[in-house]
Design goal:
With about 140 residues, this protein is mostly helical. It folds into 2 domains: about 55 residues, no CATH class; about 70 residues, no CATH class. The chain contains 8 helices and no strands. It is elongated, with a radius of gyration of 16 Å.
Length: about 140
């Protein structure tokens, strides 16, 4: 099943948008990429919310474990961007081999590494901030 994380709000198919709204998300929370529902475990979702999540391509493992059990080709683009910037390749991701940054102490990581690490391990509000921070930094390199 398809996840719709890479769709803009305006491009969401009607049934997907209804499912998103069942999860108490609106255009603003969809754009940011975070909603209070992200704080819930699968078991805490109501039956209609679980059905909506399933329609959007989530199952219990994917919901509870974020991207841990996902193949590279199933990752949303922002996670691939973050993972690549940390040194992951499709081969290392799919074989669960972490790049050198994983061995760094948190306090010795750069802010960008913190953000990219959060992007691949969490689905909270830092995703929007961190991904956009990375994009701004990348754009500044070409000015």
């Amino acid at each position: 099943m398809m996840k719709f994380e890479n769709f803009t709000w305006k491009n969401l198919p009607y049934k997907a948008r209804i499912a998103v709204e069942t999860l108490k998300m609106d255009e603003k929370s969809w754009k940011v990429g975070w909603s209070k529902i992200d704080e819930y475990w699968w078991e805490e979702l109501s039956s209609p919310q679980r059905d909506a999540a399933i329609k959007l391509g989530w199952d219990q493992s994917a919901w509870d474990n974020n991207y841990d059990d996902s193949d590279w080709t199933d990752l949303p683009s922002h996670v691939i961007t973050a993972a690549s910037s940390l040194g992951f390749t499709q081969d290392t991701w799919d074989s669960d081999k972490w790049p050198a940054v994983h061995d760094k102490e948190w306090r010795k990581m750069t802010k960008e590494e913190h953000c990219m690490y959060w992007d691949i391990t969490n689905t909270d509000g830092t995703r929007w901030y961190c991904t956009n921070l990375w994009r701004r930094n990348q754009a500044m390199m070409y000015v």
